[in-house]
Amino acid sequence: MVAGSMREREVLRAHSHRLSFASSSYDPLIKAVGEAQVVLIGDASHGTYEFYAHRANITKRLIEEKGFTAVAIEADWPDAFRINIYIHGGQLRSGKIKNACDSLAEFERFPKWMWKNEVMPPFIEWLKQHNQKVSETTGDSSQTVSVYGMDLYSLHRSAQQVIDYLEKVDPEGAKTARKKYNCFERFGEDTMRYAYETQFGLKKDCHREVIENLKALLRDHHRIIEQEMAETNDGRPREEQFVAEMNALVVKDAEEYYRTMMTEDVLSWNLRDDHFARTLARIAQFLGAEKGSGTAKIVVWAHNSHVGDARATDMGKRRREINVGQRCREIFGDDQVFNIGFLTNRGTVTAAHNWDEPPHLQKMNPPIDSSIEAVFDKWADDDCYVVTHRIATDEKGMAKKLPVSEDLSDFLNRPRYQRFIGVIYRRLTEIASHYSKCSVAQQYDAVAHVRKTRGIQPLEQEDTWKGPKAEQDQTFPFGL
Q: Cβ contacts of residue 300 below 8 Å, gap of 6+?
């Protein structure tokens, strides 16, 4: 038994790479990514500085060295698109976006610190400068980087943006769309009221109306673009139509999500993550067409519970939940997708005690003995990561994902508990609230462990959501 443990310890150490903020420490990871089209980078909490900082550093290298041109984040589409406007040097009808902090102004729903934090402004400013450099040196806007949100909680805001767009390009279409979206007026802006009253048959839902609006936008796609292109020589009409279609998709999927969330939590979770994946597919299709290559490379920022393949977790095996990590492997192909997880051991985390409450800097409990975090803490040296798979290119130019070591995979795939902290942390019920069993080498293509982490610093004091009363999401009440 002791000899076996020693061999396993040596296997882990032999494949461990030192992790630091030095750019060179990511070299083995960047090499393992190969020519993947989608790289998903997770975090074990939404309130840890090191996760955000490492993720930003890795993303910069993927952009500069691997040609990635999109960053998709676990955020609502309208909120993230303000960042996109800023990094491309654009402006809003209301005026210019003043700086990187101002580009985060739309993030007003709990938990604001998830994106309004100390790491984001410098990263956003880097993206803006990168895009300026690319535009000046190549004159090719298709090589610049875009930022998009892939979440679905902006039902009312996205509906309004669809109407605003149609009022500009198709006034009659705007009237029709407004009439259909007015179906939601019976419920006010309280999406929880919509969820309750439609789930239990108290009022008719708006399912047909949101589908008809999306179909109309897709049907008129070419006509609107050709009409608008006749008045301008740039590519803005294509992008504006794409944004409108994505907002209409958000409304359609959000309607279904809220309609099922009261009694079918697994279905609503699956609807959300499937929306993530379909959003990524549409982004890849749109940017690929803009480049003329048919493909575009995307970096995804989301929680480990979304990024790691659900089929390797109890969430997938027992609850039949899917996630975007699984769906990306299915949609883009396993050989085109690289999943990275980040774990922590001890330190502090920025998280709320309950939903819609201010965050606190909380001390984390030590990981439980039967967890993967405890294995890394006991056997790994300092902060490190292991690569379980690498993507190689064969003689025909085809990408192929290969295991790095069968011994390493066998060791890491033994089901162990893994800690998942979202925006809420409950220390007193931590095992029940935050742990799930996982097979790590199947879940991730690389996994990093930071021995001691600190809570991320919010940019501003957090308060409760001031917008529509209850545009709550699947992270409620667990905060994943």
A: 38, 39, 40, 41, 71, 72, 73, 150, 280, 307, 324, 328
Within a 10 A sphere around the Cβ of 446, how many other Cβ atoms?
25
Residue with tokens 């609230």: 433
CB 479 within 8 A of CB 359: no
Q: CATH code at 323?
A: 3.40.1660.10
Q: H helices within 230-350, ranges in order? A: 236-260, 265-291, 304-307, 314-317, 324-332
Q: Evaluate whether 401 touches 445 at the Cβ level (below 8 Å).
A: yes
Q: 384 - beta bridge partners?
A: 18, 449
In order, the DSSP letters of 99-121 are STTGGGTT--SS-GGGTSBTTHH
What is the per-residue pLDDT across 66-118, written as a single tens digit (0 to 9) for each?
999 999 999 999 999 999 999 999 888 778 899 999 999 999 989 999 999 99
> How many CB atoms lie under 10 A from the CB of residue 368?
15
Query: Is 101 among the domain residues?
Result: yes
**pTM recorded for the entire structure:** 0.93
> pLDDT tens across 214-248, in order?
898 888 887 887 787 677 655 688 999 999 999 99
Question: Is 253 among the domain residues?
Answer: no
* Cis amide prior to 367 (ω within 30 degrees): no
Q: Give the domain range for residue 118.
A: 2-151+293-453
Report how many domains make up the chain: 1
Distances (CA, A) of 315 to 309, 311, 363: 10, 8, 26
pLDDT tens for residues 368-396?
A: 999 999 999 999 889 999 999 999 998 88
Give the position of tokens 């590519």. Answer: 235
Q: Is 213 helix (H, G, I), strand (E, B) or coil?
A: helix
CB-CB contact of 127 with 146 (8 Å): no
Residues 421 and 408: their CA atoms lie apart, in Å, by 26
Report the pLDDT value the prediction gives residue 13, as an integer from 0 to 100: 93
Spell out the residues 6+ positions from residue 274 whose beta carbon is closer than 8 angstroms to its own. 322, 327
pLDDT digits (tens, 9 = 90+) for 254-302: 999 999 887 778 999 999 999 999 999 999 999 998 777 778 999 999 9
Enter the DSSP assignment of 396: T
What is the pLDDT, as a whole number, of residue 425?
Answer: 96
Residue 266 forms part of a structural domain:
no
